[in-house]
């Protein structure tokens, strides 16, 4: 797992070969990242299934409760296969757009 921070969000890149090992590592880091927006990207060479991504629903809900955003980026994804309030997109640009939209919604009290 590689973590990179900028002024807007923390980018976490998964290089682990299994979703369970990545989740274990991510959960270890989450306490340090409570107040930060998080974007998670996945290696192109490792294929993940819909069920793998659904394991992140709890983290997404927790981040929303804390008033921050959580977005997954995976190039071979159909966002319509996931719950509406679960942020999963095919590109980093789209993930950054979601962060901006959610920040505006929080400012407006939605």
Strand order in the sheet with the most strands: 1-2-3-4-5
Counted by DSSP, the helix tally is 4
Residues in β-strands, percent:
15-25%
Oligomer: single chain
- Helix share of residues? 25-40%
How many beta strands in the DSSP annotation?
5
User: How would a crystallographer describe the biggest sheet?
Assistant: 5 strands, mixed
- Helix/strand order: EEHEHHEEH
Gyration radius from CA atoms, angstroms: 13 Å
Distance between the termini: 33 Å
Which blocks of ≥5 consecutive residues have pLDDT under 50?
none
Shape call: globular
Helix/strand class: alpha/beta
Average pLDDT = 91
Polypeptide structure, described:
By secondary structure, the chain is an alpha/beta fold. It has helices at residues 19-30, 50-54, 57-65, 92-108; strands spanning 2-5, 10-14, 38-42, 70-73, 88-89. It is globular.
């Amino acid at each position: 797992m590689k973590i990179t921070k900028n002024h807007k969000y923390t980018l976490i890149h998964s290089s682990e070969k299994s979703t369970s090992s990545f989740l274990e590592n991510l959960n270890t880091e989450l306490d340090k990242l409570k107040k930060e927006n998080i974007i998670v990207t996945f290696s192109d060479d490792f294929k993940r299934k819909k069920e793998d991504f659904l394991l992140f629903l709890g983290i997404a809900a927790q981040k929303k409760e804390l008033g921050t955003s959580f977005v997954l980026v995976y190039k071979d994804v159909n966002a319509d296969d996931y719950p509406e309030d679960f942020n999963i997109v095919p590109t980093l640009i789209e993930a950054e757009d979601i962060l901006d939209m959610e920040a505006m919604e929080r400012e407006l009290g939605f």
